[in-house]
Specification:
Blueprint lengths: L5 H29 L3 H28 L9 H15 L5 H32 L3 H43 L11
Helix pairs in contact: 1-2, 1-3, 1-4, 2-5, 3-4, 4-5
Length: 183
């Protein structure tokens, strides 16, 4: 870390978040494609658009401060995306369970971003960067909304994953499986 002042730390953290957003822009289409739930797939596709806006907002913050928009490798996001990628590669997992696992991975990402944006928003306020603080607050709110959306979707997906598990267990015991009719 090269930060010798709060302003330097603020800029480093922005670079880190900027890289995190770019990593997500690359990862979200793959995550969306791996979903069996249309509702979940749509949520990831919508969040991709928001993520692109988040990167643009960081560019606006850099511009307002007279700094070039640069990235600094975000190892935290890299690790979170790697974990999510491992879920995507799983072939021998029920679709509903995979969707539940993708939600869990995505919520870890959202919580990481919420922490990051809350921190840089606070730094911006302390440094008198009110335009930056407003932009970062907007992104922070959108990240919280994304987390809430995932919570809502998870309520149904997790129930479906449990039912898939129960059906799998019943079929292994030779019990006839009653499937719910297709909608």
């Amino acid at each position: 870390m090269k930060a010798n002042s709060l302003r330097d730390l603020f800029v480093e953290q922005l670079k880190d978040l900027y890289d995190a957003e770019h990593q997500l822009i690359k990862a979200l289409p793959k995550i969306a494609k791996a979903c069996s739930s249309e509702e979940l797939r749509n949520a990831f596709e919508e969040h991709l658009q928001k993520t692109q806006q988040h990167a643009e907002r960081i560019e606006q913050v850099f511009e307002a401060m007279g700094h070039p928009a640069k990235t600094q490798k975000c190892k935290g996001m890299e690790g979170l995306i790697k974990e999510g990628s491992e879920v995507i590669k799983e072939d021998d997992i029920e679709d509903e369970v995979k969707d539940a696992a993708l939600i869990a991975a995505a919520q870890r990402v959202e919580h990481y971003e919420i922490a990051g944006y809350g921190t840089v928003r606070t730094y911006a306020n302390l440094l008198g960067e009110s335009e930056a603080a407003d932009l970062l607050q907007q992104t922070l709110e959108e990240e919280k909304e994304a987390d809430q959306t995932l919570n809502q979707i998870a309520k149904q997906i997790n129930v479906e994953a449990r039912e898939a598990e129960a059906q799998e267990g019943a079929s292994r015991r030779g019990v006839p499986i009653r499937r719910k009719p297709a909608a």
